[in-house]
Amino acid sequence: MQPIHLYNTLSRKKEFFEPLHPPMAGMYVCGPTVYGDPHLGHARSAITFDVLYRFLRYMGYQVRYVRNITDVGHLENDADEGEDKVAKKARIERLEPMEVVQYYNNRYHDFMRMLQVLPPSIEPLASGHIIEQIEFIKEILIQGFGYEVNGSVYFDVEKYNQFHQYGKLSGRVLDDLRTNTRDLEGQSDKRNPFDFALWKKATPEHIMCWPSPWSIGFPGWHLECSAMSIKYLGETFDIHGGGMDLLFPHHECEIAQSVAAKGHETVRYWLHNNMITNNGQKMGKSLGNFITLEEMFAGTHKLLAQAYTPMTVRFFILQAHYRSTLDFSNDALQAAEKGLKRLQSAAKAVSGIAVQPSVPVSPELQKYKEEVIDALCDDLNTPIALAHLFDVVRWVNSTVDKKGAIHPDDRALLDMLLIQIPTEVLGLSDSDGHTSDVETLNGLMEMILEARAQAKERKDYAASDAIRDRLAALGISVKDTKEGVTWGRFKK
Ligand code: ZN
Question: First vs last Cα of the chain: how many Å apart?
């Protein structure tokens, strides 16, 4: 098996990847907190680890891929104060918190499916693992790295740092945290402002809470990932991934918790994907430059020149290395759209090339194949892999232009390079990713209504009425209003 190198955020260098129990590789990735619509940032993280998952499988590993869903305990501003993000949304929308969770969880899955992101092997919910989290807190308390105050339990960072190094992942030093973290002037029960909650006692208005030895309350946000990764992957497992925005405090606290409870590191390779920026600025709700996937696929955000298909978005994301920032722009997306079409049409053109055993094998294609695999083995360098796939595209196009023939081995190689690797490893399906029936129906209705409008324009009322009647026979009503034509389905 060709060696794979992955950049480990903890050691700050590329390391040879070797799973603890080959051929099985364990991978845990922090999934979304389900309180809002999935956006481009979600897509980048999901696609990054989807390609890693696909590539490891392609290279012969069996992967147990765990991606969690945070449905409780993630408080506003990622700190230990403020309202629970899910509970806040539920209060504003007048819904049960679990209705909010279910709704956004479904939305997340719908959009991930459109982006051809494979589902993980296990997708645990934080709220489904309260017992495991309580047991984890008990272990931390037994080891002396936590303390209880008024029904809440906090992690003792100062004490931990006497025995282990707090901040090793993010490069933060406790001395800096001492000077930079402000105390909330007696609002907090913490011994130190940089301590973090393992268990929070619920206030009377708090909805999502559970009994525990300390109080009726809820777990701290960081705890679920320590508890669930170890539950499903073991006390030492291979890969832990997530967005760079989770590096601190989330992953730093996760390391501290796991080391405190188990006495050793649990993760062997820490991987982080970089962010999507907009004109160099971080995308955020407050900045107004935040684009949801729904807006992206429908082209409804003011920053979008057009709608982009899920496969264009996926291709756009793969054109940057996962550890580089990726700047959003319409130009880049339009270029991605063109690039993807070129790749797909070259893949289709292959079947038209004559195959002849008498033609010599092309050494170039063999070289391209090695370059593509080398790039992916080199810390998942998708932009370089794509660049080499475009060498193959040019090779195919020139062969077609010359009306040349190819050796059967080259035909197999081309199928691998232009079909198998793009679809199986990069997840670029040859449809545009618009797989839902709703989208197909919307597209078809748009076409039909356009034909009806054209019939009306040329005063062919017989044709426009016939379209209306045939739609009615299918249970679809069409109304002409001042704002334009609307349509809807009615029960026949
Ligand atoms: Zn996490």
Answer: 60
How many angstroms is it from 402 CA to the middle of ligand 1? 54
Q: How far is the CA of 269 from the centre of ligand 1 (A)?
A: 15
CA of 49 to the centre of ligand 1 (A): 14
Last residue of a domain, one of 273, 293, 320: 273
Bond into 38 cis (ω within 30): no
- Same domain assignment for residues 139 and 244: yes
Residue 438 CA to ligand 1 centre (angstroms)? 33
- Indicate the residue among 220, 243, 273 that finishes a domain: 273
CA–centroid distance, residue 253 to ligand 1 (Å): 10
Q: What is the CATH number of the domain that holds 319?
A: 1.20.120.640
Burial (0-12, 13-18, 19+ Cβ within 10 Å), 85: buried
From the CA of 273, how far away is ligand 1's center (Å)? 14
This prediction has a pTM of 0.86
Tens place of pLDDT for every residue, the chain, 492 residues? 799 999 999 999 999 999 999 999 999 999 998 888 999 999 999 999 999 999 999 999 999 999 999 998 788 766 677 788 888 888 888 998 899 899 999 999 999 999 999 999 999 999 999 999 999 999 999 999 999 999 999 999 999 999 999 999 999 888 777 776 665 555 578 999 899 999 999 988 888 899 999 999 999 999 999 999 999 999 999 999 999 999 999 999 999 999 999 999 999 999 999 999 988 888 876 676 789 999 999 999 999 999 999 999 999 999 999 999 999 999 999 999 999 999 999 999 999 999 999 999 999 999 999 999 999 999 999 999 999 999 999 999 999 999 999 999 999 999 999 999 999 999 998 665 544 566 677 778 888 999 999 999 999 999 999 999 999 988 888 888 877 788 887 765
> Taking the CA atoms of the chain, what radius of gyration do you get in angstroms?
26
Distance of alpha carbon 455 from alpha carbon 193, whole angstroms:
70
Q: What is the DSSP letter of 264?
A: S
The total number of structural domains in the chain stands at: 3
Please tell me the distance between residue 67's alpha carbon and the centre of ligand 1 in angstroms. 9
Same domain? 84 vs 111: yes
> Ligand 1 mean position to 267 CA, how many Å?
13
Question: Ligand 1 centroid vs 377 CA: distance in angstroms?
Answer: 26
Domain range enclosing 335: 277-425
